[in-house]
Amino acid sequence: MCDARAVTSEPRSPAASGGAVPDLTALAQVVARQRAEMDRLQEQAATSAVVERAKGALMALTSCTPEAAHEELLQRAKAAGHTLVEECWITLGTLVTPLGHAPARPPAVAPPSPDGTVPAPHRPAPVEAPAAPAEAPAPAGDDRGDPAALALLGRALVHVGTPHDLARCLQEHLAGPVGADAVMIYRRLPGGGLDLIGHAGIDDTLAHQWRHVPPLSGVAAHDALDAREPRWLEDLAQDSARYLLIGDPARQWPSRAWLPVVGGGGRADMAIGVLRGRGGPFSRRSRALLLGAARLCAGRLRAFDVRPEHGTDVPEEVRALFDALPGLTVLLTPLRSPAGEVEDYRIDAVTRQTVDVLGRGGRELLGRRVLECWPAVAEEPLWRGLLDTLGSGEPYESEPYAQQEFVAGGQELSLYSVRAARVGDGLLLTWLRQESSDRQVQRLADLQRLGRLGWATWNLVTHEAAWSSQVYELCDRHPGHGPVRLEELAHLALPEDAPALARAVRELLVSGEPFDVLFRKKAGAATRHLRIVAEAVRDADGTPVQVHGFVQDLTAQRSAELALVESERAILAQQGILQAERMLAGRLQHALLPMPRRPVRLAGLRVDLAYLPAESGIHVGGDWFSAIELPDGDALFVVGDVAGHGLDAVATMAQLRFTAKGMIFTGSSLTGALARLNTLLLHSRDTKGTATLVLARYQPGERRLLWAQAGHLPPLLLRDGEPRYLERPRGVLLGATETPVFEEAECRLRPGDRLLLFTDGLVERPGEGIELGLERLAKTAAAHHRTDAPGSLGPLLASMLEGERRDDVCVLDIRVPREPA
Description:
The chain is built from 21 helices and 28 strands. β1 and β2 form a beta hairpin.
């Protein structure tokens, strides 16, 4: 909870030594002895609230400064012989008016009569609030705002009791003159973040999402507070590029204003956001009215902000007790939403050893929020544990977790657990450090022995070093001689390996660069192959202060590697010729049959293509395809399979592929092209063997598909999720006979249809009839017919091609787009 270097998702603790849980009985006695002091502080806070409310009321009615309002109250109290608190109550009492009525002017507060009674102020007849006119541009130079609207707002502010009431009051009174649809009020936290303390016109979900804004750049409210100047967001496009805009979507409020509320001493800790549902700039009159409203709200907001922010409601004796406690302990007060849910915790007391993720510690953390100091807690089991402890009163203890921490100039891995206990309405949180057990020590020793490795540590501050017993054994060094200094580590290596090891050590000491070096060392008559891995641990300034690492014996591994190298050389020599043929055939095939990287669009169709070479053997097959658009706008689809493998099959495939396209381009019919290709296979010197083929021509105007085949498997049509194979027209294997017969078939496609053209490698399996493969393809395609994304052939191919592929696979997936609804 307190260290960003923690290695588990459990709550992180600061880097410090362990401590015990403080005596809760003693703590409770201290708190009890200070109850009277706490009551006095609470009374003082309540008195301050009354004074601030009275000041805010005078400021709202007279638009005076906070200092002038305070001076006016002091003078009235002196003139009437009252205390300041009495005068504040009298002032607030005389300003209260029945709901629905507003005085036409601020009532004068008369001094009390000799018998101590206060005369009732004169109340004029009720005045109805004027109807709010639609916003219109103000005349040039008119920056007075709307005095009537400000007067009504000032009178209404006297009655607000919470920040949410104030937000609703602002929205109601600014809706007409300015067009305000929503109001948000933020308070700046000590750590720089913002808390949403009041809102109106936005739903609870959005308010929860934006209840806390971290101290980030690009937030208009932060910008307004930092500059102590308003920010007018009147161009949605430009403002979206500059700021992170509130809203889902942000365009629901095309224009907005963020107004800093400047308090005493010129500080700006509050920001009011006015969000409008209409776009366009704010007029000069609207800007003046908004600035005046922000000034009127200053006193009321300060009156609400009397809750202690830095643990001032905790007696100094309790904080001093925490200063003296060992270990890591904090006292937390839950901060609840208006609905009563715990949103965060305030740190009211803290021990000196406690540190947050930014390195702040001790009393620097007083008054800060837990999520401000340790943001990751919200996602950890600790958050749920704290809520359970608050509700049930049962203590909570987390599971142990590991964490790296700096101790005495070095870094150690320690185990921690977290305990929480309820104290009154708050929580006491303690981190406990757990020592390693004998079992863990034994496991570490077994690991080093079985893994033929050992650990080593060099402290660069104290110039001390420590080796495990296994390192002494691996380096063939007597433990009585002690560890070798880091600077002399290269002396262990053979002369040929020493320079590389010495250079790695120098780079680690100078720049902190870790190293992983292999070196050889003489051990009697034998030679050991050792590996050393080391890294530096830095202090807060980045200077290396400790080096830790391990040494591993790789002698057996290196011997096996040398034997494998000799075996591999013999195998590679035998495979060289065969591999060269495969590489040549493969490169030739890729050059002749390029694969598109994404689906192609042809004649209004979407076409996915897949080609998968066989996995067995080293031969390249003769499967091929073509998918092109013809000059007249039709599309040509071809899938073929040449018998055999290797360079001869690739050469025959190339002849057939380019000849078939050339014939169709020059006007040949599908059957005519098949007849000529058959003649080419029978009588050409450059082509050998036989081949199967499907030729299909698609006419987009009529969605008409003409197709012919030569001994090839029929295309599969999926319509409305139902699969069926097209009935094959007559056609024999190319190159099988001098007198072949070829026929054409026709199919009318519909929107949403899917057509698969494929080679036999997709459906054939050893020892299985082709009919079973075709049936399996139909069922698999029907199961995946809804997949309509690019690359949708992947699931189909994965389901069909299980185990090793002994033949090439070529697939054309043709889809007719659905018509828009």
